[in-house]
Amino acid sequence: MRNELKYENQYIIQFKGLKEGVHDFEFFLSRLFFAEFEYLEVPDGNIVAHVVLTRKPAFLDLDITLTGSIKVLCDRCLNPFLMDMDYTGHLVVRFSEQEDEDDDEIMFLHPEDHHLDLKHYFYECISVSIPYRKVHPDLPNGESGCDPEMIKKLKDHLID
């Protein structure tokens, strides 16, 4: 079991003492993570974030994979359902004393920084992974996975 009291430091990599080379990290994103980001429209989920960090003398190179499921509202019947999520991304962390603007794949840290907080990066990865249209997957028999009563109400109000 994870200790929920350590939530604040849960998505931080302390890289100052890491030797050059490849290092693996795993983070778990659950309800407490999603509660921090009310604009995400995802109240809950279970995501495993796997980070492969390659430490180089002048920068950090990260390959990031997010897998699991998130709870979303169906756009058709308005009931929540768990939607599978897979995301693969690449992030380069460069060190600079100037305040350079980050972009999607490059982040800048001050040379005296000794840790990397990935919480906001994970949020952005999930944000771009949510499809525009979210609908229950079909059942194995081919029928809609949506709430049948809501589908009936929609059909009753359908104008031909």
Describe this structure in words.
- A 5-stranded mixed sheet has the order 2-3-4-5-6. Strands 1-7 form a two-stranded antiparallel sheet.
- A hairpin with a 3-residue loop joins strand 3 (44-55) and strand 4 (59-73).
- It has one domain.
- With 160 residues, it is α+β, with helices and mostly antiparallel strands.
- The chain contains 3 helices and 7 strands; from the N terminus they run ββαβββββαα.
- The protein has helices at 31-35, 119-129, 148-156, and strands at residues 12-14, 21-29, 44-55, 59-73, 80-95, 106-109, 115-117.
Keywords, please?
disordered N terminus, 3 helices, 7 strands, elongated, five-stranded mixed beta sheet, two-stranded antiparallel ribbon, 160 residues, alpha+beta
Q: What is the fold's blueprint, element by element?
A:
Layout: E1 12-14, E2 21-29, H1 31-35, E3 44-55, E4 59-73, E5 80-95, E6 106-109, E7 115-117, H2 119-129, H3 148-156
Parallel strand pairs: 5-6
Antiparallel strand pairs: 1-7, 2-3, 3-4, 4-5
Quick synopsis:
This protein is an alpha+beta fold and 160 residues long.
* Major sheet attributes: 5 strands, mixed
Instruction: Please compute the radius of gyration using only Cα atoms.
Output: 20 Å
Output the helix-strand order. Answer: EEHEEEEEHH
Total helix count?
3
How is the quaternary structure best described? single chain
- Numbering strands along the chain, what is their spatial order in the largest sheet? 2-3-4-5-6
Which structural class should the secondary elements be placed in? alpha+beta
Give the N-terminus to C-terminus distance in angstroms.
Answer: 54 Å
Number of domains as seen in the coordinates: 1
